[in-house]
Design brief:
Low-confidence stretches: 1-19
Helix content: under 10%
Strand order of the largest sheet: 1-12-11-5-6-7-8
Strand content: over 45%
Number of helices: 3
Structural class: mainly beta
Largest sheet: 7 strands, mixed
Mean pLDDT: 91
Number of strands: 30
Distance between the termini: 36 Å
Length: 416
């Protein structure tokens, strides 16, 4: 039943804007792979996964743990709007719906995020989240009447973005006039179901199951790895060849593999090991391996898997959303120093906090990580200004021999 306030608002709504969001949208691929683009306003070959296309422009969407990436090619007087229904229960239901608007003004990109709270009896309302403008970034390049914009969206501790493997949600991407009125909260939106994943396949022979083992899917620049592809089938399916190659930025930096497809053993299993070494200047982030399976009739099947080029060491805040009691100024921030190598790490870490914060301890300590890909826990103790609240950057630096590794993490403090 529609409450009177919503009904009255629907009657007064600008009719020309409603169809754009309420009509179904075709999505190119519902399984979205972890893939890190270079956010520079230039869409390179195999850098982006297309999402949807319309007469107004072409849109792209991908992810990595903790981040969403958006891009679009569109006329210069347009904005990109991404709508997420994270619980898949309808746009005007609950308070789990997210709108991300990427704007380009005078050639500069910006990100604005808000959520829709439809739990109020009086009607749905928008809630602005200015913290996303601090943690996120957008870069644009203009060529004639067309702008290419790329954006990195980082949840600063508000827990409103879906950014984990196997998460599912409804999504739509719309290119709208930058001068269009702000969309009213009572206007419905229809999204298509997508899933975040680390691997996907298309056009495989019936009955063939496959997987990529987790071991080896993370490596550091200048080192080698072995990634195992596993296949299972109860029947003879006539596979002849498997070719594995990297896509995008690593296509010229790591190895390719082309082998006859191995015979299945008595348990219906077959294994192919892909071994490669990365260059020391290999770009960090998530990349794609593309496998092409050729069968006896020549029809190709495609398998794709995400793998990661990781820094030697990285940082993570244990909980980036902290509640601080009123009148309290002392704050403890547990964080982790994580190794991505198989070797022992011996170094030191330092921490930089926002202006006005006083670090009491935990900001400058040596560390030793003995075990492969292990980590250690540290606690940063600070005094913050009275009544402080909002989202703040915490900058971590690790020094290992002559090398330094710096990373910014975001912390949201709630006072009450």
């Amino acid at each position: 039943m529609i409450v009177p306030a919503i009904l009255a608002a629907l009657v007064a709504a600008p009719i020309q804007d409603a169809p754009q969001f309420s009509q179904p949208q075709s999505i190119v691929e519902p399984t979205r792979l972890a893939l890190t683009p270079k956010v520079d306003g230039v869409i390179e070959t195999d850098e982006w996964d297309p999402l949807a296309r319309s007469n107004e422009g072409e849109t792209f969407l991908q992810w990595e743990p903790g981040k969403l990436y958006l891009a679009a090619k569109m006329p210069v007087d347009r904005d990109l709007i991404l709508s997420l229904d994270t619980r898949q229960d309808g746009w005007l239901v609950g308070k789990d719906n997210v709108e991300i608007r990427v704007r380009v003004v005078d050639g500069k990109g910006s990100v604005v995020v808000r959520t829709l709270d439809a739990t109020q009896v009086s009607g749905p309302k928008w809630i602005d989240h200015p913290a996303f403008s601090l943690s996120s970034m957008a870069v644009a390049k203009v060529d004639g009447g067309i702008v290419t914009v790329e954006a990195s969206i980082i949840d600063p501790g508000l827990a409103v973005l879906p950014t984990k493997d196997n998460e599912k949600f409804l999504v739509r991407a719309d290119v709208v006039a930058e001068s269009s009125p702000v969309q009213e909260p009572f206007q419905p939106r229809v999204g298509a179901l997508i899933k975040l994943a680390m691997q996907r396949a298309s056009a495989l022979p019936a009955g063939l199951k496959w997987n990529v083992e987790e071991s080896g899917r993370t490596l550091t620049p200048g080192n080698s790895t072995k990634i195992r592809f596993t296949f299972n089938s109860k029947d003879e399916i006539g596979l002849k060849k498997l070719e594995i190659k990297p896509l995008g930025a690593l296509s010229e930096r790591v190895s390719t593999l082309g082998v006859p497809f191995p015979a299945f053993d008595k348990k219906g299993r077959a294994f192919v090991d892909y071994e490669t070494r990365t260059a020391k200047d290999a770009p960090a982030g998530y990349h794609l391996l593309n496998g092409t399976l050729t069968s006896g009739d020549g029809a190709p099947g495609v398998i794709q898997a995400s793998y990661r080029i990781a820094p030697t060491v990285e940082f993570d805040i244990a909980d980036n959303r902290i509640s601080l009691k009123s009148g309290t100024t002392s704050l403890k921030i547990p964080f982790y120093v994580k190794s991505n190598t198989q070797n022992r790490l011996d170094g030191s870490c330092s921490v930089e906090t926002p202006s006005g914060w006083e670090i009491l301890k935990g900001d400058d300590k040596g560390f030793i990580i003995y075990n492969s890909r292990a980590g250690i826990r540290r606690v940063l103790t600070v005094n913050v200004p009275a009544g402080v609240s909002g989202t703040f950057p915490i900058r971590f630096t690790a020094t290992i021999g002559p090398n330094t590794f710096t990373e910014t993490r975001w912390l949201t403090i709630l006072t009450g």
